[in-house]
Write a structure and sequence with these properties.
Oligomer: single chain
Radius of gyration: 18 Å
CATH superfamily of one domain: P-loop containing nucleotide triphosphate hydrolases
Number of helices: 9
Bound molecules: adenosine-5'-diphosphate
Structural class: alpha/beta
Helix content: 25-40%
CATH architecture of one domain: 3-Layer(aba) Sandwich
Shape: globular
CATH class of one domain: Alpha Beta
Order of helices and strands: EEEHEEHEHHHEHEHEHH
Distance between the termini: 39 Å
Largest sheet: 5 strands, parallel
Length: about 230
């Protein structure tokens, strides 16, 4: 398994009160597997991704990701873990406007143990249809093209897992479908697992494996229904 979660609980403290936002008894994702996670805003999807990425330490439970038990790791170890194994794709691309498309992709490998590999970066940009755009800055690209740069940037360091948080949130439905198709194909070709969060039915329906976050996260079911 690339992700194994057991009895995972995340609580935020507000003074003396504990606000429980995540309570996931068990969840797994296999190597190379792809899953779409859907659920309403505020149901804890980003919190789950942040735990898997080692950005957030859960209140309790077990999280083993890419062979690494994240519980008990210090912040620096979690940073190194993330740099080596995990890539994030966001709704708002987070491309650096002062750098070219190719430089942005190479920056995806800066902190990873893999040396930034120019030939691989160019091959990935070719794969996402941007071979003619290597020296352009992101601002000259369409929104859909910018998200394709982010896909190449995510894959350049050969991560075991890509976490995509509403990656089509800025795109119209046609470009959303195209970006998700490319992302899924590129992950498959690179042996990379994909956990994609989306509230768009058209995006989620493309995946064979789907998770309804309201059913998975007991903290939401427990809180739901009240005034
Ligand atoms: P989603 O990604 O499904 O929209 P989030 O994971 O962003 O949901 O948030 C889940 C819940 O946790 C929300 O109610 C949010 O307000 C709460 N939350 C997130 N971060 C914090 C924080 N640092 N302190 C307190 N509450 C937080």
């Amino acid at each position: 398994m690339i992700v194994t979660l057991r009895d995972l609980v995340v609580e935020y403290r507000n003074g003396g009160e504990a606000l429980r936002v995540l309570d996931v008894p068990t969840w797994e994702l296999a190597e190379g597997e792809q899953v779409a996670i859907s659920g309403p805003s505020g149901s804890g999807k980003s919190t789950l991704l942040n735990v898997i990425a080692g950005l957030l330490v859960p209140t309790r439970g077990t999280a083993v990701v890419c062979g690494q038990d994240l519980i008990g790791l210090g912040e620096a170890e979690r940073d190194r873990f993330r740099a080596a194994h995990i890539a994030y794709i966001f709704q708002t691309f987070n491309l650096l406007q002062g750098y070219t498309v190719l430089e942005n992709v190479l920056l995806g490998a800066v902190f990873s143990p893999e040396r930034p590999d120019r030939a691989r970066a160019i091959a990935l940009l070719e794969r996402v249809g941007l071979r003619q755009r290597l020296t352009h800055t992101p601002a000259r690209l369409s929104i859909g093209e910018q998200q394709r740069v982010a896909i190449a940037r995510a894959l350049v360091k050969k991560p075991g897992l890509i976490l995509a948080d509403e990656p089509t949130g800025s795109l119209d439905p046609r470009h959303a479908g195209e970006v998700v198709r490319l992302l899924r194909e590129a992950c498959r070709e690179n042996g990379c697992a994909l956990a994609l969060v989306s509230h768009e039915a058209g995006v989620v329906s493309a995946f064979e494996k789907k998770v309804d976050f309201l059913a998975l996260n007991r903290a939401v079911s427990a809180a739901g229904g009240g005034p």
